[in-house]
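Fold this sequence, please.
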Amino acid sequence: MVNGMRRWIDALWPLTRLVVWLGERRPTRGDAAAARTEGEAALTSQPGRLIATRLVERAAGRRR
């Protein structure tokens, strides 16, 4: 069983490195971009919450 798990980990490791690399390069907008220091990864702890906030702000702007 351990050998099987090790094979999966070895097979998926390059994919995890790619995901991390893409996450570090992800552009952000607004306050999050201004608050980040150079070389710091984008915040991804609650991506659903951040997306919902942006959608609500856009919808409010359209009603005016």
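The mean pLDDT is 68. The chain has one domain: 2-63.
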